[in-house]
Amino acid sequence: MHHIEKYIESLNEYTKHNLTQRNANPNSYKIFALNCIQKFLDNIQREEYDIAPQKDVKRLILPDDKPRLKKKLYDQIDYIPDYVLEQLMNNIDRLHEEVKPVVLIMLYTGLRISDTLSLKQDYLVKLDGKFWVEADIEKNM
After folding, report:
1. Quick one: which of 105, 115, 109 has its CA closest to 138?
2. 41: buried, middle or exposed (CB in 10 Å: 19+, 13-18, 0-12)?
3. CA distance linking residue 106 with residue 20, whole number of Å
4. Whole-structure pTM value
5. pLDDT at res. 47
6. What is the chain's Cα-based Rg?
7. Are 40 and 47 in contact (CB under 8 A)?
8. How far, in Å, CA of 113 to CA of 90, rounded?
9. What are phi and psi of 125, to 5 degrees?
10. Are 52 and 45 in contact (CB under 8 A)?
């Protein structure tokens, strides 16, 4: 228990002093790090390794140890987070057959979902033997 408390303290210090980039998200970093540690401890405990903690992992890293992420307002969301994209790609086969092409077009073109859904068939053009999506979409930055 003491080791986990020390790790959380050092994680807080690390994110405070080292994640200084403008787009850095210290809370996301902390959640990711704690999730990794929790998975590792859970795995070694389940496999009954000698180094596994004696206490149940759920009692070592509590939900309150992980910071809460602030949700952005709908009009503030400007991109799909990497972890969502990764989940989409890892589970693309589980999507409904009608949804797959929409998700793939969105991922490969970089278009927003609303722009992807508003594409018309004549936006698909063939140039030099390859198909391209040609759309006149206005972006607000």
Report:
1. 115
2. buried
3. 31
4. 0.51
5. 93
6. 22
7. no
8. 19
9. -120, 155
10. yes
